[in-house]
Write a structure and sequence with these properties.
The protein has 370 residues and is mainly alpha-helical. It has a domain of 135 residues: Orthogonal Bundle (Cytochrome Bc1 Complex, Chain D, domain 2), CATH 1.10.760. The chain contains 16 helices and 6 strands. The strands form 3 sheets. A two-stranded antiparallel ribbon has the order 1-4. The protein has a two-stranded antiparallel sheet with strand order 2-3. β2 and β3 form a beta hairpin.
Length: 370
C-alpha cells in the first residue's frame, strides 16, 4: 500500500500524483479531503430518522423516504430509473443522499437550492413522489403518541409538518461518508495510478472537485437518453407532469430530458441537456450511473468519457477523446472505488423499531396517556 498523508484536507503529497493534483487543479491541496461532519441535535436526528422510515409520510402510506433511498444501496435504490408513488414511475435515476447536506443545489437539474426544508417539502408533497397533503400528515403525527413525545423532546412542540421539515434534514446531516481508502490516505498501487490519471491526463478534477468530488455546477457531457422514459407510458406521464409544471414548451412531443434548462430557460436552448456534476463519493454502492441510469458499471462510465463523451450539439467543448490504455482505465475505476467508505447501515442511520400504521383513533391527542 502507498500511504498519502492528510491533515483533514489533502496535505503535501509523498507521491507525484498529489503534487500533480495541486498543480493542475487550482486549490486542490485545500479542497480534497474527508467530507466535513456536521453538528446536529440528537433528539431532532432521532425524530428525523423515524420520519425517514415512516410510510405514513406518503399519501396512501405505501412508501417512505427510505423506499427509494435505501441505506443498503448507499441511500439510493439500485435502479436505472426510480420507482415513484404508486400509479406512476420516475424518469430519472435516484441519487444518493449521502453528503447531500453539503449540496449547493438539489435534483439532477439543480432546480432547488441548498435549503433542506424546501427540498423535504418538495419530496413529500410532489404527486409523483410521495403525494402527501401536509395537513393530513400532521394529523397522522398527532395520532401517534410516540411522535407527540418525540416532537416535544426535539424542541418542536406539538407535532407539525413544519417540525417534520426540520427534523428530516437534521437526520440527513448525519449521512456523511467516512473511512474510505482515500480519506485514510491508503491507496493501492492501482488506485494511486488511477488518482494520477484522474488528476492528470483525464482532467476529471476540473469538475469533480472538493471533498464531495463535485463542483455543483451544470454541464452537458452528451449522456445518451434512456429510451425507457418514452417507451413506458407511466414514466412518460410522470415526465409530462414535471415538464408542464416547469414550463417546458412542446412537452408532449420532446423526447429528451431538458435538464437544467428548467432553471435557466436559455432562449437559444444552449442549456438543454445540462445536468449537475454528480458526486463521486460512494460509487461502489450507488450504481447505475448518470442522471438516467444508462450506464450499469463504472467501466462503462470510464469508456464513455475516454471516447470524449456523447454526441450532443450542446456538449461541453472541453470533452475530448482521452485515448487511455486498458490498464489506465482499470486503474481509474480502482481509484473511483477507493472513494467509497463504510456503508451507513448501522442503527444510527436505520430506524429499527416497528412503526405502527394502524391504531385506534385518538379523539384528543393532548389527553392521551403514553
Amino acid at each position: 500500500m502507498i500511504r498519502i498523508e492528510f491533515r483533514g484536507l489533502l496535505k503535501i503529497g509523498v507521491t507525484a500524483a498529489v503534487g500533480m493534483m495541486a498543480a493542475l487543479v487550482p486549490g486542490a491541496a485545500e479542497d480534497f479531503g474527508p467530507v466535513p461532519q456536521i453538528e446536529t441535535n440528537a433528539a431532532q436526528v432521532e425524530l428525523g430518522r423515524r420520519l425517514f422510515f415512516d410510510k405514513r409520510l406518503s399519501g396512501d402510506a405505501a412508501i417512505s423516504c427510505a423506499s427509494c433511498h435505501d441505506p443498503a444501496r448507499g441511500f439510493a435504490d439500485g435502479l436505472p430509473l426510480s420507482a415513484a408513488y404508486p400509479g406512476s414511475l420516475g424518469f430519472r435515476n435516484t441519487p444518493t443522499l449521502i453528503n447531500t447536506a453539503h449540496r449547493a443545489a438539489w435534483f439532477h437539474d439543480g432546480r432547488l437550492g441548498s435549503n433542506l426544508n424546501d427540498v423535504t417539502r418538495e419530496m413529500i408533497t410532489e404527486d409523483y413522489m410521495m403525494n402527501m397533503d401536509m395537513r393530513l400528515m400532521q394529523e397522522r403525527f398527532k395520532q401517534d403518541p410516540v411522535y407527540v413525545e418525540m416532537f416535544e423532546a426535539a424542541g418542536y412542540g406539538e407535532p407539525s409538518n413544519g417540525g417534520a421539515r426540520k427534523a428530516i434534514p437534521e437526520f440527513l446531516k448525519t449521512l456523511i461518508s467516512r473511512n474510505s481508502a482515500f480519506d485514510r490516505g491508503e491507496l493501492s498501487p492501482s488506485e494511486q495510478s488511477g488518482f494520477t490519471i484522474f488528476a492528470g491526463v483525464a482532467g476529471c478534477g476540473t469538475c469533480h472537485s472538493g471533498p464531495r468530488f463535485t463542483d455543483d455546477r451544470v454541464y452537458n457531457t452528451g449522456v445518451p437518453d434512456n429510451p425507457e422514459i418514452w417507451r413506458n407510458p407511466m414514466r412518460h406521464t410522470t415526465f409530462v407532469a414535471y415538464a408542464m409544471f416547469m414550463g417546458i414548451e412542446n412537452f408532449m412531443n420532446i423526447r429528451r430530458d431538458p435538464g437544467a434548462h428548467v432553471r435557466g430557460h436559455a432562449a437559444d436552448g444552449s442549456d438543454v441537456g445540462t445536468f449537475l456534476t454528480p458526486t463521486l463519493r460512494e460509487l461502489t454502492h450507488t450504481g447505475p450511473y448518470m442522471h438516467n441510469g444508462v450506464f450499469a458499471t463504472l467501466e462503462e462510465v470510464i469508456d464513455f468519457y475516454d471516447a470524449g463523451g456523447g454526441d450532443d450539439p450542446n456538449k461541453d467543448r472541453r470533452l475530448m477523446p482521452l485515448g487511455l490504455s486498458k490498464q489506465q482505465r482499470t486503474d481509474l475505476v480502482a481509484f473511483l472505488r477507493a472513494l467509497s467508505g463504510d456503508p451507513l447501515t448501522g442503527p444510527e442511520f436505520v430506524w429499527q423499531d416497528p412503526i405502527p400504521t394502524e391504531y385506534d383513533v385518538i379523539d384528543d391527542w393532548r389527553e392521551t396517556p403514553n
